[in-house]
């Protein structure tokens, strides 16, 4: 389905504390965020006109900025208010919110101590990240040739723009080969995550296994699913998982703000079933974000 390019849309964007016309929300070509990846961001879902886990996302945004040496010009309450304001202004009922923080253009070199910190928040209507028909039968992943960097080489626990370069490379490679997404291994060759989502496996006993987030983000949706599973009596084990262990699992799914709960039917040569446990977790998550009482 064709979508309107993001620089051609209409409405307002919250830009440095002002509601700015969408077409006028611009930055200079020579900004540090573009050239040196001095940029952090968040992705938030809107359900029935409310942002799910807004405060947690804002806390992570501020943590990411601090880790990148960026002093936020606004406090968390102001950013929360900005996120709520922009979805009302844009009349977003079921969509996406993108807060983004970047260094400006005062200095153009590796050093950036004098650069102004800019903040913007945009919102738009947005449906499923993956094709809904594919989600019903499970998406297919390859195994990326790129790996998540060692934790002592990057600020791995941030949502920083530069960390997604290898994700784009991995996803493009996967799509060129007919896959929907790509599984990334960590620096030691263990299962890590997909390009923009965490991963879970289900064994024959109904236990869930998920990698320890020690070189990639411990996703907000990931934590929600762990809580839902445990409250439903499902055992969850966080541990290192070798790729060859995937032959022992019956089910697999991804979690993320964009991905929500997405079943996986294949990773490379490993096959999985879209089992009842995964369907129930997806339903429970849907009920949670929509504030519905589980049946």
Map the helices and strands.
Elements: E1 12-15, E2 18-21, H1 32-36, E3 39-41, E4 44-47, E5 50-51, H2 54-67, H3 76-89, E6 95-103, E7 117-125, H4 132-137, E8 139-147, H5 165-176, E9 181-185, E10 191-194, E11 198-202, E12 208-211, H6 220-231, E13 236-239, E14 251-256, E15 260-267, E16 270-271, H7 276-289
Helix pairs in contact: 2-3
Write structural notes for this entry.
This protein is of the alpha+beta class and 295 residues long. It folds into two domains: 12-125, D-amino Acid Aminotransferase, Chain A, domain 1 (2-Layer Sandwich), CATH 3.30.470; 132-289, D-amino Acid Aminotransferase, subunit A, domain 2 (D-amino Acid Aminotransferase, Chain A, domain 2), CATH 3.20.10.10. It is 26% helix and 28% strand. It contains seven helices and 16 strands. Strands 8, 9, 10, 11, 12, 13, 14, 15 and 16 form a nine-stranded mixed sheet that branches. Strands 1, 2, 3, 4, 5, 6 and 7 form a seven-stranded antiparallel sheet that branches. α5 (165-176) links the parallel β8 and β9 (181-185). α2 packs across α3. The longest helix is centred in the N-terminal third of the chain and has 14 residues, at 54-67. The model has no long low-confidence stretch (mean pLDDT 95).
């Amino acid at each position: 389905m064709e979508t309107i390019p993001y620089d051609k849309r209409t409405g307002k964007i919250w830009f440095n504390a002002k509601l700015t016309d969408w077409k006028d929300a611009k930055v200079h070509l020579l900004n540090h965020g573009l050239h040196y990846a001095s940029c952090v961001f968040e992705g938030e879902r809107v359900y029935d006109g409310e942002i799910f886990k807004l405060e947690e996302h804002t806390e992570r945004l501020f943590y990411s900025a601090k880790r990148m040496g960026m002093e936020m010009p606004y406090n968390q309450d102001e950013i929360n208010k900005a996120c709520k304001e922009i979805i009302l202004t844009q009349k977003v009922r079921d969509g996406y919110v993108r807060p983004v923080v970047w260094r400006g253009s005062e200095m153009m070199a590796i050093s950036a101590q004098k650069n102004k910190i800019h903040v913007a928040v945009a919102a738009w209507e947005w449906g499923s990240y993956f094709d809904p028909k594919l989600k019903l039968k499970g998406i297919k992943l390859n195994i990326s040739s790129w790996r998540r960097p060692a934790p002592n080489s990057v600020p791995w626990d941030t949502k920083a723009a530069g960390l997604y370069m290898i994700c784009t490379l991995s996803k493009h490679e996967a799509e060129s080969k007919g896959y929907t997404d790509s599984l990334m291994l960590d620096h030691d060759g263990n299962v890590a995550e997909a390009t923009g989502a965490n991963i879970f496996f289900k064994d024959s006993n109904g236990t869930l296994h998920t990698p320890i987030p020690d070189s990639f983000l411990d996703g907000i949706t990931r934590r929600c699913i762990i809580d839902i599973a445990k409250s439903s009596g499902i055992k969850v084990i966080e541990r290192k998982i070798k790729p060859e262990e995937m032959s022992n699992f019956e089910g697999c799914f991804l979690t993320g703000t964009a991905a929500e709960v997405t079943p996986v039917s294949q990773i490379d040569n490993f096959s999985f079933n879209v089992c009842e446990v995964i369907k129930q977790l997806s339903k429970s998550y849907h009920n949670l974000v929509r504030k519905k009482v589980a049946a």
